[in-house]
Amino acid sequence: MDDYLGQTVFSDPGDLDADALPTDPGQLVALVRGLIIHRLEGPRFGYDIPRDRLHEDAESRYVTEILRILRERRDVPLTEARAPRERFVGTCRDFSLLLCSLLRATGTPARIRGGFATYFVADFLEDHWVTEYRLPDGSWRLVDPQVLHPSYEPPFDPLDVPRDRFLVAADVWRGCREGRIDPARCGFHSVDRLRGLWLVRARLLQDLAALSGVEPLPWDGWGPRQILDDASLTDADLARTDTLARDGGPVSVPDAITSYTTYDGVRQITLRRSSPPA
Question: Which residues cross the membrane (predicted)?
Fold first, then answer.
């Protein structure tokens, strides 16, 4: 992942004809917004999402699977408008990964970033994923395809998310450890047990894994010990995570991981290490 232009196993779009896509990042953000509906967005679109799509779609960790589902629902070019029922039902990670894939496919270096957004709930850092792409001058810009919709009304341009409105996980970890951020106000505001320093640590490991070429689902975990609450964090865990937050990765992800998926329960997953044949 030296330049973030090459595809990973996760972002690889397979046999997609990239020549038919726009190359402008802003146009690609709008395109992705029209291909995915977040699994909590049904009321925003007046669409009662079928229950099977709520979990089957969101378990599609590879872009090839996202594109397959989109073709099954309506086999037309990605640039054509879709009704909500014809879209992929995903999460913020899926918006971010599909955009990352299309940016890379059309010549723009990109990566997904795990962290926390300040723009969903007041005085709360909501667990979230966005896309980051490289500008011609070498700098990086954050974009949030999910909130590029009139119903969100973020107080900024979703095509240029300020760094103080979306904080990458390492910055949040350091803020928590230095006493500037309350870990209890980090995570998922609607689920009390999905908050805390342990979750900030989990997102930091996932963010570094994504930067290292393994773009995980939000509920993936790995390692000899699964840490699911603050009480399980040892002094050694804290020290190791302090180092990662300061120095970065790379982070090595094993072939076998644990998926703490919402609908299907805890499962062991073996990750692909190569893309399937076209």
Answer: none
Q: State the amino acid at position 224 in one-letter form.
A: P
The answer to whether the predicted template modeling score (pTM) of the entire model surpasses 0.85 is yes
CA separation for the pair 19, 2 (Å, rounded): 24
pLDDT grade for 249, boundaries at 50, 70 and 90: confident
What are the φ and ψ backbone dihedral angles of 102, each rounded to 5 degrees?
Answer: -70, -35
State which amino acid sits at residue 25: P
Q: Please state, in angstroms and rounded to a whole number, the distance separating the CA atoms of residues 127 and 196.
A: 11
Question: In the beta sheet, which residues pair with residue 257?
Answer: 269
Rg (CA), the chain: 18
- The distance of Cα 73 from the centroid of its chain, to the nearest Å, equals 23
Contacts of 39-46 spanning 24+ positions with Cβ under 8 A: 39/89, 39/90, 39/91, 42/84, 44/149, 44/151, 45/84, 46/84
Pairwise CA distance, residues 5 & 24, whole Å: 15
Do 113 and 29 touch, CB atoms closer than 8 A? no
Distance between CA 110 and CA 91 in Å, rounded?
A: 19
Mean pLDDT of 21-31: 97
CB 237 within 8 A of CB 244: no
User: Cβ of 66: how many Cβ atoms within 10 Å?
Assistant: 21
